[in-house]
TrEMBL record:
Domain Nudix hydrolase per the UniProt entry, residue ranges: 77-234
Keywords annotated in UniProt: Isomerase, Isoprene biosynthesis
Protein family according to the UniProt entry: Belongs to the IPP isomerase type 1 family.
Catalytic reactions on record: isopentenyl diphosphate = dimethylallyl diphosphate
One GO cellular component term: cytoplasm
Functional pathway: Isoprenoid biosynthesis; dimethylallyl diphosphate biosynthesis; dimethylallyl diphosphate from isopentenyl diphosphate: step 1/1
UniProt cross-references to CDD domains, sorted A to Z: NUDIX_IPP_Isomerase
GO term, biological process aspect, one: dimethylallyl diphosphate biosynthetic process
Gene Ontology terms for molecular function: isopentenyl-diphosphate delta-isomerase activity
Known role: Catalyzes the 1,3-allylic rearrangement of the homoallylic substrate isopentenyl (IPP) to its highly electrophilic allylic isomer, dimethylallyl diphosphate (DMAPP).
PANTHER family per record: ISOPENTENYL-DIPHOSPHATE DELTA-ISOMERASE
Protein name: isopentenyl-diphosphate Delta-isomerase
């Protein structure tokens, strides 16, 4: 069963964001030396800090948003993110494009997830709700997957989850309000993984088109990210997939205050 919508307050840092910058200056960042330099550079992208109702209350770096010391503290840091699902309905049954994260990824390396998972940035364009998130989706699928086709992006809902890194390094984790965005591959021909994608090997090791049953089997193998695992096990993916196959998902869901807690 789908777990309840967020109702209880979550302790969140709501003040003194200027202290984050000064704090970073005094942190020992030597521990980052063991990671891929390109991935480390991305840790300084500006993300949105939000409250339990997804209201923007500040900004921080990607690094600080994912530090367990900020997530598991009394004042838990939550940031805005998205999970994108690209379906190919040129076959029956329809298929979902999954990616295996690269070994260079700092969080959840080599685990499988939905098509693209990332963050809208704290800038004038991407702070603008659903439209800002859609802009971030297009930006990231081009960067990660080299996918250049026009897409009609559809917003479904938001989820909230927290998780520690896998393998658990005691350093990083997730604490996100995640916008669920879907689209279908609209070309006349069947989606071709070799021709339609030019993957960024620093981000993605493999991509694969899978049926719902194959996605469920992959989750049971224990090789998927926490958010994808929970989405599948709570029945959300099956629900969205069924509505997609019935061609019921043709426009954005009505904006609401509902955030599904996983």
């Amino acid at each position: 069963m789908i777990k309840s919508i967020i109702q209880c307050p979550i302790n969140i840092i709501v003040s003194s964001y200027r202290n984050l910058a000064s704090l970073v200056k005094h942190q020992n960042l030597d521990f980052l030396d063991k990671y891929d330099p390109q991935q480390v550079s991305l840790l300084y992208e500006p993300l949105m800090i939000v409250d339990q109702n997804d209201r923007i209350i500040g900004q921080t770096t990607k690094k600080d948003a994912h530090l367990l010391s900020n997530i598991e503290s009394e004042q838990s840091l939550i940031h805005r993110a998205f999970s994108f699902f690209l379906f190919d309905n040129s076959t029956f049954p329809s298929r979902l494009i999954l990616q295996q994260r690269s070994s260079e990824k700092i969080t959840y390396p080599l685990l499988w997830a939905n098509t693209c998972c990332s963050h809208p940035l704290y800038n004038d364009i991407e702070i603008n709700g659903i439209n800002g998130v859609k802009h971030a989706v297009i930006r990231r699928i081009k960067y990660e997957l080299g996918y250049e086709y026009d897409l009609e992006l559809i917003y479904l809902t938001r989820i909230f989850y927290q998780a520690r890194n896998i393998p658990d390094d005691g350093i990083f984790g997730e604490s996100e309000i995640d916008y669920i965005i879907i689209a279908k591959h609209k070309q006349n021909s069947q989606l071709n993984l070799l021709n339609d994608f030019k993957i960024n090997k620093n981000e993605v090791k493999h991509i694969k088109a899978m049926t719902l049953k194959e996605c469920e089997d992959l989750v049971e193998q224990g090789v998927t990210t926490p958010w994808f695992t929970r989405i599948v096990r709570e029945g959300l993916l099956a629900k969205w997939w069924s509505a997609f196959d019935r061609q019921e998902l043709n426009k954005d869901s009505q904006a609401s205050d509902e955030i599904i807690r996983l």
